Amino acid sequence: MEWLALLMFICVCIVLLAGYPVAFSLAGTALIFALIAVSMGELHPAILKSTFSRLFGIMQNSTLAAVPLFVFMGVMLEKAKIAERLLSSMAGIFSAAPGGLAISVVIVGALLAASTGIVGATVVTMGLLSLPVMLKSGYSPRLTTGVICASGTLGQIIPPSIVLVLLGDVIASANRDAGIGAKPVSVGDLFAGAMLPGLLLVSLYIIYILIYSKLNPESAPALTRDKAMPAFQWQHLVLPLILILTVLGSILSGVATPSEAAALGAIGAIVLAIYSKEFSFKRLKQVVESTTKTSSMVFMILIGASIFSLVFRAFGGDDLIRELLSGLPGGVFGAMLAVMLVMFLLGFILDFIEIVFVVVPLTAPSLLAMGVDPIWLGVMIAVNLQTSFLTPPFGFALFYLRGVAPDSVETSEIYKGVLPFILIQVALLIMMAVWPQLITWLPSLIYN
Questions:
Q1: Is 159 within 8 Å of 201 (Cβ atoms)?
Q2: DSSP string computed for 11-55
Q3: pLDDT, position 196
């Protein structure tokens, strides 16, 4: 029945490219193929009963409860204008230096990434807040758009990232499917593994900006006193930073589970909104509605992907993938390179949620069975998807920024602006592949 698995995968790709909703495309295609297989006598009807146990398992998964809570935390911080105050405060520190505004955007983007973890929200927020200011201050459109897009994608890698929460759960399941019980994986492991690469990526961004502003001072000017943004106010930076460190620290230290830490973050975001005098029941309603829409999308896709995965495996699709990957030249390196390349290309047409729920469960068990470290695999996937979302001409981050950028900023300038940052991220991927300790050292230090 492996030919049915291959045909089903091709059909679902066609349906997705046709523009149908992802969740219903996955579930609908799988159920149609399952019914065809049952009518042909190739599949026993009892296999479909497993659908209910899978759905019940999703409902019982306490780790996934962190998703709506982290989304709530991020949306509340955004609606309460915490991001706007962060940018104003950071610009007050760095704006007097060449490239200072761009450095401020990178740092604020990293902090927003740690609080929202949603690429679209961060790119749009940074685009609305910093794009007009940077252009008005004489920054080149190329540097401005590149910095905003690159900073917006940091939500993929900097914990506590929703991407890492979902990846942690999926890779833990794949680890069990691969029959590797000696090394359990948790969301906290991925958070710890992503810390050093995330900080290294931010540092590389800043180094590039410093070099660029040195070579092109007219494209990244220092702001004069009359152009400078409001003076630095410590509470605008310190309070959100305390919230982020409390949430992340409670997870890494083992004091709280990801769900408990996310609940703490949601409450902390409300407290910050009240302290900033930006809290109201109208705003709370907006935050809850936005959280519900985003979380519903995530779980509907998860349900659809779960049904698709069930039927795909019933057709023997997992054996097909295992044989395909193990037969590639280069062994583990060749298999890993092929999977990363496929995910990179799929990142042009699918959001990270679909890739995490569809592609990772199909490929990760085979890679893990070949001896790939699960924490290293999870962080490599996150950085790979981050690079994909930044790459022209189909990168999602580029579309988000194009939607809020003025017509005076040409699309070609956005494409050219992100190219140096793409090279930086590719360099990081190579560094993590050559030195896996960049990912595995901190988890082994904390949890051993």
A1: no
A2: HHHHHHHTT--HHHHHHHHHHHHHHHHHHTTSS-GGGGGHHHHHH
A3: 93
Residue 228 has pLDDT above 50, yes or no: no
Cβ contact 265:69 at 8 Å? yes
Comparing C-alpha atoms, which of 114, 101, 115 is closest to residue 148? Answer: 101
For residue 39, the tally of other CB atoms under 10 A from its CB is: 9
Q: Is residue 135 part of a domain?
A: yes
Q: What are phi and psi of 157, to 5 degrees?
A: -120, -30
193 with 409: CB under 8 angstroms? no
Residue-averaged pLDDT of the chain: 83
* Number of domains the chain is built from: 1
**How many CB atoms within 10 Å of residue 46?**
8
pLDDT tens figures, 341-365: 988 888 777 777 778 888 888 888 8
Whether residue 231 lies inside any domain: the answer is: yes
Q: Is residue 388 part of a domain?
A: yes
For residues 159-179, one letter each, b for 16 or more C-beta atoms within 10 angstroms of the residue's C-beta and e for the rest, the string is bbbbbbbbbbbbbbbbbebbe
With a cut of 80, say whether residue 448 has pLDDT above it: no
Residue 10, Cβ density class (10 Å: 0-12 exposed, 13-18 middle, ≥19 buried): exposed
Average pLDDT (56-75) is: 81
DSSP string, 387-415: HHTTSTTT-HHHHHHHHHS-TTS-HHHHH
Q: Give the Å distances, CA to CA, from 349 to 224, 308, 385.
A: 43, 18, 12
CA–CA separation, 242 vs 92, rounded Å?
A: 20
* Residue 422 pLDDT: 93
Asked whether the beta carbons of 258 and 192 are under 8 A apart, the reply is no
In a domain, 42, yes or no: no
Average pLDDT over residues 389-398: 80
Please give the single-letter amino acid code of residue 364. Answer: A
pTM of the model: 0.83
**CA-closest candidate to residue 268, choices 238, 237, 239:** 239
Q: Is the pLDDT of residue 62 over 70?
A: yes
| SS3 of residue 347 by DSSP | coil
pLDDT at 420: 94
Those residues whose C-beta lies under 8 Å from the C-beta of residue 152, and which sit 6 or more positions away, are 109, 113, 119, 122, 123, 124, 126, 127, 397, 400, 401
Structure tokens of 389?
């979302």
Could you report the per-residue pLDDT of 278-311, keeping only the tens digit for each? 899 999 999 999 889 888 888 888 888 888 888 8
DSSP character string of 301-326? HHHHHHHHHHHHHHTTHHHHHHHHHH
Q: How far is CA 67 from CA 72, 292, 354, in A?
A: 9, 11, 15
Domain housing 378: 69-447
